[in-house]
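name: query_chain
kind: protein
chains: 1
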Amino acid sequence: MPPGPGTFPSFRASRKSCRSSPSILAIGFFASLGLPGLNSFWSEFMVFVGAYGSPNLGEMRRLIIIPLISIVVTAAYYVYTMQRILFGDVPEKLGHSHDLLPWERVSYVVLVALVFLVGFFPVPFLGMINAYTSGSFPWLGGL
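structure:
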């Protein structure tokens, strides 16, 4: 059965027919990956620093390599997926596709601004989280 609209092959080379949506897709991929300067970086960074610095791990500390390897594998999948979606020849059915509508663009601009705001200035957001986590995990030594 051939792939229909909305499936993975139908998005191939969307970078050439649209401008805004592929950029937002790339920012979403990079944010999900946890690159520095984007919102997910701080959560991954704090998990790894906290796990490595925990006195409760002892000999198990070397197991931190497993999630680090998974981040590298995820990065490889993301690069492969973005290459397949954003580069190449535009299929005939996407030759005249439209980019984001104005109200869609406004909502994505707000979301992308928040992604970068949390990435560059995480302290106000971490303060909100710390109030709950410091009392929630006394068995971890309290944060």
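note: The first helix runs from residue 14 to 17.
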